[in-house]
């Protein structure tokens, strides 16, 4: 897959697949941070060292395949324009921080976009692997396979006492961040998230927005991940996270059932009003579109909406973001122009779905 295909396809191929509990859990991600032994970490490296690391990955791994993760393509940040970088961030293929690292940073991305190995971000290597729905054990198992595959040719910075050494002390140990993206509209509507978030934080987990640290939870989408990487094994971390996610799934389903029982007509009215806004608006801001798409997704899950597929909503979540809108338009757009383009794009996609 070429860079242009990464840009043009709003929804990643792996996200088109069905996953367990996908009425609430959108995706599962495992990220492993690694550094090379005997090479200065990126935050203190000279440009020459960073370029050597990058060239090694280009020579050894570009166009390579591992199991279902075929034709890894190396995408250098230095050759991308700001819109192209933003699109890759919006698709979760790279982190916002990688875009700021300069010409010696890159990402190796598999053809199905399920694997992205960021090079010279905060650490030499930040590999991330995605699965649809709730699949923590499967994602961890596959991440270990990729980790071993890389380690066949690389020596990682590792301490027998501390574990994997990373630029940020919060990643030392396993170097792992496990995260689950969840759609929790009923818990938000019933104002339960206000008490749930602090409780989750006390368990050594963290609740963030759709783009991770520092991002807002728009469209009732939350990312739940571990904070602790030191002193626990990867499997222990997974078990802790899995326990909390199962509780959230149960609570969200209970809240949905309660809303249908107590305010069924009002809930249905809200969902169809949001559908009407999306299908008819000529101008719509990003936050409003995200909230309306959340209502529409809830309506599909509850059986109110039967003529729209969730795959279209997954696509629209990306297509309505600022970077993708500008890439789609092939020009820079002001915020007002993006709002017009966003509304037009949503109407077009929903009308195609109705045909």
TrEMBL record:
RDXXRA motif of the pArg binding pocket involved in allosteric regulation: where is this motif? 338-343
Kindly state a single biological-process term from the GO annotations of this entry.
phosphocreatine biosynthetic process
The record's family statement is: Belongs to the ATP:guanido phosphotransferase family.
Q: Under which main EC class is this enzyme filed?
A: transferase
The entry's function note states: Catalyzes the specific phosphorylation of arginine residues in a large number of proteins. Is part of the bacterial stress response system. Protein arginine phosphorylation has a physiologically important role and is involved in the regulation of many critical cellular processes, such as protein homeostasis, motility, competence, and stringent and stress responses, by regulating gene expression and protein activity.
The record lists the organism as: Pontibacillus halophilus JSM 076056 = DSM 19796
The organism's lineage? Bacteria, Bacillati, Bacillota, Bacilli, Bacillales
Q: Which HAMAP family match?
A: Prot_Arg_kinase
Q: Which CDD domains match?
A: bacterial_phosphagen_kinase
Arranged from A to Z, the UniProt key words for this protein are:
Allosteric enzyme, ATP-binding, Kinase, Nucleotide-binding, Transferase
Domain Phosphagen kinase C-terminal, by residue range, is 24-255
The protein here is known as Protein-arginine kinase
Top-level division of the source organism's lineage: Bacteria
* The enzyme's E.C. designation: 2.7.14.1
Molecular function as annotated in GO: ATP binding; creatine kinase activity; protein arginine kinase activity
Q: Where does ATP bind?
A: 27-31, 92, 126, 177-181, 208-213
Q: Does the keyword Plastid apply?
A: no
Query: Could you tell me what reaction this enzyme catalyses?
Result: L-arginyl-[protein] + ATP = N(omega)-phospho-L-arginyl-[protein] + ADP + H(+)
Q: Which PANTHER family match?
A: ARGININE KINASE 1-RELATED (PTHR11547:SF38), ARGININE OR CREATINE KINASE (PTHR11547)
User: Does the record carry Transferase as a key word?
Assistant: yes
Q: Which GO terms describe its cellular component?
A: extracellular space
